[in-house]
Amino acid sequence: MTGLTRRNVLAGAALSMSAAALSSARAAAPATGAQGPGVYRTKIGSYELTALYDGTWFRKIDEKFVRNASGAQVNKALSDAFLAPGIVPTSFTAMLVNTGSKVVLIDAGTGGQLGPASGSMLANLAAAGVDPKAIDAIVISHFHPDHISGIKTKDGAKVFPNAEISVPAQEWAYWMDDGNMSRAPDSLRGTFLNVRRIFADIAKEVKQFEPGKDVAPGIASIAAFGHTPGHSAFSVASGNQSMLVLSDVTNHPWLFARHPDWQGVFDMDGNMAVAVRKRMLDRAAADRMLVQGYHFPFPASGYIVKSGKGYEIAPVMWQPL
Amino acid sequence: MTGLTRRNVLAGAALSMSAAALSSARAAAPATGAQGPGVYRTKIGSYELTALYDGTWFRKIDEKFVRNASGAQVNKALSDAFLAPGIVPTSFTAMLVNTGSKVVLIDAGTGGQLGPASGSMLANLAAAGVDPKAIDAIVISHFHPDHISGIKTKDGAKVFPNAEISVPAQEWAYWMDDGNMSRAPDSLRGTFLNVRRIFADIAKEVKQFEPGKDVAPGIASIAAFGHTPGHSAFSVASGNQSMLVLSDVTNHPWLFARHPDWQGVFDMDGNMAVAVRKRMLDRAAADRMLVQGYHFPFPASGYIVKSGKGYEIAPVMWQPL
Question: A134, B40: Cβ pair inside 8 Å?
């Protein structure tokens, strides 16, 4: 009723306006009802990087979302971030790296399988003018579904038919092991099954990499185990510039960078995840490194600033390429 | 030479990669060399708002850029914002409001007349699917060239032929007065002349509004004098939601919101501009208002947080509409 009342007030105000301002009954340009493209480019040396927004999962949370913080504490952090209680808007942004000779995708998106507002990556790839067939390589940080499901359609077809897929060896060893699956808690069963859905029939084609190795020209893997057994970050370097791709070193930064001690339900080894998070964010802050985070708000890159016991994200300032 | 050396190293590393990863000499998708579209939509009640990025002016500054702060202090603030010294990347974002019955543009952009990286608004309007002819009304905050030059092409043709133009009465009275022009310092002469270039031949069509009045359905003007004699902010309200359009209450927020006492060379009445800035940012922080700033980094909206003696911008989290 508030809305109706307010509209009536506004309609009254409009009566006092000029006839010209009231000449059309409807706007000539109808509302679109859709967000603008989520495509943001950055130059790193001679490389062109394109952040591709894959949507947002409005994740309903309960008391168990953070193992070592109460629901009230999490809701306070959400409020501090101007977000509503009880829902963590978890956004997804994959990174496309065009080296000039190779087009490499770091993480493959949700495939639209995490709620109705996920899965915009392919539309944004099209908005960026890139055919999925043009992607030469996919580098995967870890095997949670929001990072690998986009490799295939729901029907099991390859979305990026020409891409060589590289994954962390430790991640492969853990998730593809049937013994681990049989011993895993029920909450992880879906993740194990999804890993098999994505990788089982293409297992022979998938390359495995060890941490510290180059996974593509100018892209080196960095061990960041803890979030998952083989979770990896990446450095992208060209010329004298670089970007640190943090993958899931922190989930939503306004929760887990501001509160780096918090162990989310998704951090499989919570203590190790926290130690890695602090070490990498400390390093990024000290060296004023340009970083990207898969769950940072789009365009998902910026800088890390130490603040009290936690870290703030200073988002990159949107500018021309 | 650093770059070359690094490329050689990377080339060496690439030799150890798989043959498949090296199969093509060039990427199938060439680098675009251009930024992605700067189009971001927000719903306010039943209204659809579209932030339109108009580019960035990489403004070279000297000791006089802030009247009451030294060049060293300004460079420190730039460094704190992870920006290079001596240049203020001043971005421009206009706001399109589709009320369902009217399409209203708040401020008209630079018209590409502030350096080679300005003037992307029309391309972004096209990316947003809106024909310039579909704009019913233009509401102007003040007469600085980056807010009005986009009304006309360089040849003097109207860019938005069907738009009724509304301007602050106090702004019109000041800038259109030839006596004021004759008494003005040389530094303002170009601004006076540009005002005449834009408005002289369409003077009879231009509507003038008083502060506090509705300027379009759901859009009310707010006196924010000081930056210029008639500088105006706006509230956009629909249903029980609203956005405060701050116009130039603060220029680059990482300088002038963090240091609200600073008087930029563009603040014509520096003391009044500072008083208005503090009053409006205090109010926005206390009421947790969604705000938009013409010179905020795109998408140029967010929330104001009091922090020490200044204010931080908490950028809106990019999400689906």
Answer: no
Q: Which two tokens mark A43?
A: 């130059």
CB-CB under 8 Å, B2 with A101:
no
Flag if B320 and A26 touch (Cβ within 8 Å).
no
Among the partner residues A41, A216, A318, nearest to B21 by beta-carbon distance: A216
Q: Which of A56, A157, A167, A191 is nearest to A105 (CA)?
A: A167
Among residues A245, A43, A57, A51, the alpha carbon closest in space to that of A140 is found at: A245
Q: What are the pLDDT digits (tens) for B191-220?
A: 999 999 999 999 999 999 999 999 999 999
Q: B136: nearest CA in chain A?
A: A21
List CB contacts (< 8 A) between A6 and chain B: 45, 237-240
Residues B133-143 have a mean pLDDT of 98
Please answer whether residues A143 and A181 qualify as being in contact, where contact means their C-beta atoms are separated by less than 8 angstroms: no
What residues pair up with A98 in beta bridges, in sequence order?
A: A48, A103
Q: Give A29's contacts in chain B (Cβ within 8 Å).
A: 98, 103, 129-131, 134-135
What is the rounded distance in angstroms from the CA atom of residue B44 to the CA atom of residue A75?
24
Cα–Cα separations (whole angstroms), residue A246 to A28, A114, A150, A235, A274: 44, 21, 19, 9, 13
Give the chain B residue nearest A100 (alpha carbons).
B27
Which of A18, A32, A88, A221 would you mutate first to test chain B, the one with the most B CBs within 10 A?
Answer: A32
Query: Does residue B29 carry a pLDDT above 90?
Result: no
Q: Which of A1, A2, A17 has the most B C-beta neighbours within 10 Å, making it the best mutation to test the interface with B?
A: A17
Q: What is the mean pLDDT of chain A?
A: 92
Count helices and strands (H / E) in chain A. 9, 14
Which residues are registered as beta bridge partners of A51?
A40, A95
Q: Can you give the pTM of this predicted structure?
A: 0.91
ipTM: 0.89
CB contact under 8 A, B319 and A18: no
pLDDT at site B23: 41
Q: Residue B237 forms beta bridges with which residues?
A: B242
Report residue A10 as tokens: 């506004």
Query: What structural domains and CATH numbers belong to chain A?
Result: 38-315 (3.60.15.10)
Q: Find tokens 């967000």 and name the residue.
A: A35
DSSP SS3 for A143: coil
Q: Which two tokens stand for residue A5?
A: 């009342």
Ranges of chain A with pLDDT below 50: 1-25
Q: Mutate one of A5, A59, A82 to test the B interface: name it (highest B CB count within 10 A).
A: A82
Q: What are phi and psi of A254, to 5 degrees?
A: -75, -10
- Conformation bin of residue B171: beta by default, left when phi > 0, alpha when psi is -120 to 50: alpha
* Banded model confidence at residue B27, pLDDT cuts 50, 70, 90: low
Work out the burial of residue B43: count CB atoms within 10 Å of its CB; fewer than 13 is exposed, 13-18 middle, 19 or more buried: middle
